[in-house]
Amino acid sequence: MKTLELQADVLVVGGGLIGLSSALSLARAGASVICVDADRFGVHQSAQNWGFIRQQGRGLAELELMTRANALWEQLSDDLGTETSWIQGGNLAVYDSAADEQKYQEWVRQGGKYGVETGVVTLDRIKRLIPAWKRQVRGGIFAPGDGHADPQTVVRAYLSAVHRNDVKILSNTPVQALRRRGGKIIGADTALGPISADTTVLAAGAWSRQLLSTIEVDLPQNYVVGTVALTSPVPHVTDTTIWGQGFAFRQRGDGRFVCAQGGGGVVRLSADTISQTPLFLSAYRKNWRRFALRPSKRLVTDIRSVMSGKKTRDTGPPIAKVRVSESRRALRNLKQTLSGVEEATVTDSWAGVIDSTPDGLPVIDASPGPDGLALATGFSGHGYGLVPVVGPIVAELVQTGTTSFDLSPFALARFKTGKFYAPNAVL
User: Fold this and answer.
1) C-alpha span between 357 and 6 (Å, rounded)
2) Rounded CA separation 351/228 (Å)
3) Which of 141, 262, 279, 363 could bridge 378 with an S-S bond, Cβ 3.0-4.6 Å?
4) pLDDT computed for residue 427 by the predictor
5) What is the rounded distance in angstroms from the CA atom of residue 362 to the CA atom of residue 356?
6) Burial, 8: exposed, middle or buried (Cβ in 10 Å; 0-12, 13-18, 19+)?
7) Do 230 and 256 contact (CB within 8 A), yes or no?
8) Does residue 96 have a pLDDT over 50?
9) How far from each other are the two terminal CA atoms of the chain, in whole angstroms?
């Protein structure tokens, strides 16, 4: 391989949608930008998520960002100059218990304070919204302004836009370590050589903790592996994204349903994830029914290393493996919820790794420690909807150090000071 030695105003580490949005906004602001990824751009969680774009049910700290992002999604095809497949069909979240009903009603009250158009709906109202509905539920909440878009289409649209704005993109180029000189980050060492930059933006998703450990900056981060199924096409049923305990789905423009089990997944235990237990304990207590704990293949090796006095460093996320049982269950839940899908079969499935923080909120921070470093990571499965607003925010932080949004809930330092709480999202 040819050795590189490159320089730019800004280096963006991570070629998912958060990294691409950041690179695009920085380039539009006049910076020279290099964006690097260890794989092909956008192939991980950016292209593997459900495609939901929702304000409803989010943690309240995210709502100011998400209401703005939702407005940007409505015009994103025009902004990028390429179709994004955005459909504003609303989001329906249903519940079965009195406890959940109370929790959802409280979220409606709080969400309304942030300008989210949402309200409680009865089962009869759900059947009017979605005539094919057949599942018995206690009720739900519905936000008509929410929507969905095909993730692969959105990735292609952002890639096209960054190309037109002269961002230099380097795929299949793993970053081995961030480069530090004194108290400043000056770029990164890659498999093809060093890249120098005045500012480095880390938007590496599930790989962020591992990369930050190379400069001794600690980012609490665990990993959840979830399976998503894609069905054969069926006649149009609904444009609404639907979520309930144990199921979630949306119908694409081509008639296929994207189905999942409604959040959660498998958490692979390593020595590193176990060492973070005190930070994640409150979140796990609140959501333990949604996760299955499984030992990682390296757990025994890690424990032996610790017992022998060696320090184990995070080695990144686990390999995402499809769980066929989850695909089958997702399809079964779809058929139990809607009529008109009886002939649907699973034609494809994939698994993605979701990075999670102890409070389920991202880290968006231009002063996490060393100078010359900005973070946009830890989105905990909520990053897709926020993509159009996070890029401009990162550009503002890099160029001016400030932004019009209150980013204090997303500061990295909250985990050291203890100023964080169990996730308060309801879905």
Assistant:
1) 33
2) 6
3) 363
4) 77
5) 8
6) buried
7) yes
8) yes
9) 46
